[in-house]
Structure formats: structure tokens, C-alpha cells
Amino acid sequence: MFPKPKPVLVPNTYAFESEPMVKATGFREYDARWLFGKEINLMGIQALGMGLGALIAELGAKQEVVTGHDFRGYSASIKYALISGLLASGCKVHDIGLCMTPMAYFAQFELDVPCVAMVTASHNDNGWTGVKMGANRPLTFGPDEMSRLKEIVLNADFKNKVGGSYEFHENFPARYITDLTKRPKLKRKLKVVVACGNGTAGAFAPGVMEAIGCEVVPLDTELDYTFPKYNPNPEDMEMLHAIRDAVLAHKADVGLGFDGDGDRCGVVDNTGEEIFADKVGVMLARDMSAIHKNALFVVDVKSTGLFVTDPVLQKQGAKTTYWKTGHSYMKRRTNELGALAGFEKSGHFFFNKPFGRGYDDGLISAIAICEMLDRAPGKSMADLKNALPKTWSSPTMSPHCSDEAKYGIVDSVVKHFEAMQKKGEKVAGQPIRDLVTVNGVRVTVEDGSWGLVRASSNKPELVVVVESPVSEQRMRDMFEAMDSVLRTHPEVGEYNQKI
Question: Which residues form the Alpha-D-phosphohexomutase C-terminal domain (predicted)?
């Protein structure tokens, strides 16, 4: 028998070393995230492995799992605790070692393994850990699987059996890199800043970009799990500004920044200006829909309205549907609809054939951006960006809000705007044109300006994004309108960054 996990244990005690600790809030909408040592211990991770093995069997999938881990000081030990749980549940484990998350997704196809359990805290601060899981490639778990996993683990409802086995796949990254680079080299000589924030992608991204024909300017590509400069998160302005400085200093054509586990890519143009990922998505959609007529795209509710209003996309017959934010939701929707690609404002991009296999991979995104530039030989990245209709948009802004409170507050905000629409009341001085409530609330007013409030799926935060096709002032008006509603809830704290 394995003990039932406790929600809290005190470190440096007998109990902490002898019982599993698993805080319930770590089971999030589509993956798992905990503060290691404060919210989960190694025996708790072992319990998670046993629970995952039991769930895989319950889902009717073959009990074979790819595992890998990102570059943090504690990730390898967490992975081995997870593996011990998977082995106890009867799983065959295929360990590919230190890797980026998309490398683990690729391994599911390359090794013909149905399931994945990737140990990563993605771009979260040091101290966080987590697992991205799936049992049906290229998809990852959604709320149903995560709720069931939580139930199994917290109730210690394990179905352990003999028969588990372990195999380490030596030099697996070489197979992934070969797969990415077996394509015609770029005709255009591009100088590219490759920024990794000392995270996992530093071991792989520079070599891949060189192999496709880029001249690479490496920036913080040395692996260092203390993250001495800043967190590897291409949505954070600190990382984007470091890329800007390198682009200008080296006169590069483009700057590409990868997050901690390499499934996202941020972009800075040749003038040093960051291009938020949703605008990069519009540029890629223009490029891809010129080659593939009547293309269908899926974008998340945080993304620019240009996907619907852009005249070039309209002329090329492209269609776009908005969906819930979150890599698992977007992956699933892109897969279900057979869309050519899915684009998320955070930088998770999902390319289906012929561009990819449906999962999010920052290096595939980077290659797609370089190939887009290759197909536009006389144009710079700034030229392609400036060809888009002008909009003023905010970065993703996240006010602190506890995991226990955030969903209730978002429900209340949704009801607030629904009531305003019903009564014909104005937001930022204008009538509401449209409300999208598939994921929080996206409020669009008459002039096309919009604001979004939703709950973060993997951190104790809310998410706020605003955009206006009219002016910077209208963007700020929308922010004030959204923020004034949030300020009626004392549980909502300070923002990580603001416009």
C-alpha cells in the first residue's frame, strides 16, 4: 500500500521524507504545476507517476510513456521519482533524457509510443516544477483527464502491477535535430539572434538554426539553471529588450527567443521592435494561405482581431476561428478542425501537415519565420510587420490572484459584462459589439477595440490583454475599463507588467 497524499507537510521532518505531499491546486486545467518542496515532495511525484500509469490504463491506451526533463537543478530527480511511479504502475518508460518539450512530443512519433510525461516548469520561475502529459499523440491532457488524475492521486487509488520496464534512448536529440533540418537550405542569408535565456533550448536551437542556413548570433545560450539574467520567457519585456539590443548591435535580420522548455518562440524585428506572437501569427497566416488556398486557422481569445479583418487573409480565402487559450485546448481544436495551423498569443504555434505534426514546437515556429522571410527576398521582418493594418496592442498582463479565488472572480467579471450588454450600457464610452465567453470574457466595442480577462491556467494569476485598431489612447481606455472592474475585487493584486 502507498499512503494517501497529504496537502501539506513540513520540510526537514520525518513525515516529509516518509509520506507523499501533493497540493490539490497543482492539478491545473491541462497540465500540472507545483512549487517543489512547498506544494509537492518526491514521494508526491512518485504518487503522480502511479496515478498517471493508472489513468493511462483506464483510458485504454498502451502503457508506454516517453519521459524527458528540462534544465533545472531539480528536474532530473523529479523525473526519476515520476519514473519510479510509472514503473510501479506497470508502464514501459522510454527516457530521452534532457530535452525540450517538443522533443518529447516528437519522440512519441519517432519511437511509436502513445503517451508522454515531460517534466518541465516551462517559463515559470525557479522553484516551480510540473509535468505536461498526454495519452493520444499529438494531443495533451485537457480538464477531464486532469480532474480524473487528481482524483486518482489524491485518493491513492492506484492499480499498481508488475511488468514495468525502463529504456534510455541514447543521443535521442540527434534524431530530433535530423528531422527538423532535413529540408532545403534557405536561399537567403539571414543573420539571426538566437536567445534562450540560459534555458533548455540553448543546447539545441543554435545548431538547428545554423543547419537550415542561418548565420547565428547566440544570446544566453549557455545552460545555467539559475537563470542569471532573467526567466526564459519571450513574453516578458526584459527578455525581448535583451534580444532587441543584440539585434541592433549585430545588425541582425531577426531575433528569435525561446522559452524554458522550447515550445514557444518570441520575435524581434530587424529594427529591434518586438512583434507580439499574435501579429507574427497573422504574418505567418498570410504567408501560408498564399501557398494553401482557403486555409483554416485557429487562434486563441488573447489574439489580435486582425485574423478576421485583415484584407490579405480575406482575399486569400483564409478563415479563422477563435478558441480557448491554453496549449492543450488549442492543440485539440486545431486537430479536430484539421486546421492548417493554430496560433496562440503566448507563442505556442501548432502546425499541421505539411508544416508539422500538430504539436507546439518553438523551433518549427522559428523555421517557419525564416522560410517566410526566404519567400519574401526583398522584404525585411519590419516590412512584413508594417504591411499589416496598424493596431495598438498590449503585452499579456497578469495581476496576482490565488488559485482558489481566480475562477470565481472571472465568473463574476463575465456576469458583469453580460449584464452591461443586456442593459445597453457602454464600455470605455462605446456600446458593446460582441462578447466572447469561451474562456473568460473578451469584450469588443463598436470601434473594434477589445479587452480580455481570463484566469491563468497554470499560475495564481489573472490574464488581461487589450487592443485597439483606432489609437493607443483607445487601447488604454479599454485597459482602464477592464481594470476598473477587476479593482472591485480585493483579491486581485498587482500586475507583473502594465502598459
Answer: 423-483
